[in-house]
Give the backbone structure.
Amino acid sequence: MIGLPNLEEQKTTDNLEKLVKDTAESLDNPTLPELVEKLVKEKRLKFQEASRAVYVFWKKGGLKLSEPNPPSNLLSFTFNLESLWFWAITALVALTMIVVFSVNASPLIYARYILGGVFILFLPGFMLISALYPRGGELDGLEKLALSIGLSLAIVPLVGLMLNYTPWGITLTPIMVSLAVLAEALAAGALVRKYRYYRLSSE
């Protein structure tokens, strides 16, 4: 059964959005805490109500949020909170390499299986998706998961095929090193593309 929208709730939402808009315009480019604080103190809203109203209005495109000191180049962007995912991926790759090459006994052997599975069946495809879709909003979580696994299943055999024609062959060390280099290269490409999109959206 589909319910009809509550007119009173719609009016309240519209009133809150107008209140947020008018308050933001009166402050002339306020910070987020300043906007919420004024809604609480002068407009008599509860903190949770004010925060939710600002969030909803932002999600609808009524507000544009930006950093007070945005990164001005790729290097500063790399060490910004926007790039925390890049360092998380780098740490995951490093941890996987350490565990795979150093752990051979239980119970840590299960950590080796889990990290190795993620490293081979998910990470290459996920990094490729991140590089192809730098905005991050084009795909939902399930689509991204399915594509990441599917692309990983396509990429890893190609890496193995290329290694087959090298002096190193298809053994553990060349495969792990090749996939680590590939994952970091794709992560770096995704980082550059995300930085370019960040600059375009901030301008």
Summary: The chain has two domains: 10-59, 74-202. The CA atoms of residues 74 and 195 lie 7 Å apart. The chain has a mean pLDDT of 83. The chain has nine helices and no strands.
